[in-house]
Amino acid sequence: MDFKISAKDAAGKARAATITTDHGTIETPIFMPVGTVASVKGVHQRELKEDINPDIILGNTYHLYLRPKTSILEAAGGLHKFMNWDRNILTDSGGYQVYSLSGTRKIKEEGVKFKSHIDGSYHFFSPEYVMDIQRTIGADIIMAFDECTPYPCDYNYARRSMHMTHRWLDRCIKRFDQTQPKYGYNQTLFPIVQGSTYKDLRIQSAEYIANSGAEGNAIGGLSVGEPAEEMYAMTEVVCGILPEDKPRYLMGVGTPINILENIALGVDMFDCVMPTRNARNGMLFTAHGTINIKNKKWEDDFSPVDEMGITYVDTYYTKAYLRHLFAANEYLGKQIATIHNLGFYLWLVRQARKHILAGDFTAWKNTMVKQMDKRL
Hints:
Layout: E1 2-8, E2 15-21, E3 24-28, E4 30-32, H1 45-52, E5 56-60, H2 61-66, H3 70-76, H4 79-83, E6 88-92, H5 95-100, E7 105-108, E8 111-115, E9 122-125, H6 127-137, E10 141-143, H7 155-178, E11 188-190, E12 192-193, H8 199-211, E13 217-219, H9 228-239, E14 248-250, H10 256-264, E15 269-271, H11 274-280, E16 283-286, E17 289-292, H12 312-316, H13 319-327, H14 331-358, H15 361-372
Parallel strand pairs: 4-15, 5-6, 6-10, 10-11, 12-13, 13-14, 14-15
Antiparallel strand pairs: 1-2, 2-3, 7-8, 8-9, 16-17
């Protein structure tokens, strides 16, 4: 993997860069649509590629392992071929899913025993096995196995969990170095900084991760319910320690405002289910604020979904029509809203990149944050 910084914001820490893998170039800052089970919910790969146009999407190790199972993915020639996606893919390690299954999992030093949400069967993830699974899935960027702590989190638990995540990282690196990619292209391993919202733990973890010498680094355990100010504070601390010449990925973040504020702190990569999940509930993100398309006020509004026309759905359909689809519980409404929201997120990070390159990112970001912080 190759990472090159093209420009930095003079008034802050934002940067525009490129990440190059065997599946092509990723221009950063980038938002990665979440394709949990080899599908970005409600969106054809053709629409994803031509209308939303991300350089990279995300898959989920836990879900893909359970269904369709790694044997099917291997027989298909890896996830890229299975889902017919020829651009970059990142897979998370399953650590977050294991965290969210708190009632049906047991964590110990060796790894995590958990119960499938599909059929109740028991499975065991060790750091080594998670590396093997991700080798078989075949993503370009794979994540180390970690424990994502909840919020709020007891200090002693956060400290113990962080140290275990570090020990697991050493085991991940060892297994990764002992194995080869399966499908003729390279894979890159990113470790994950933990430490909850405790500054001293975040510093320790960021230093440990920085010293691992990986080609890129991730920040985990944020966007789990803590106030945005705490997220920004922890991100700032960690970005000040992680190497300047490696990409930084903030996992599971967030709202359009969260993304801009974290770009300003030096983050390059983001993913979040928010644009797709909120779309399915009728919430549209726009440059001028959020729209709840289910509200009666849009019933006879025959203006385009979004006058900016970022994707084809924005001008092809009206607000009144989209509201009608939601009222009638027609799945097309969810699809339209999903394409709009993902298109908007990609537009937003590409505008951020443009303004970093132009040298006026901070002023633009401050204006956008005010505009987007409204209910329309």
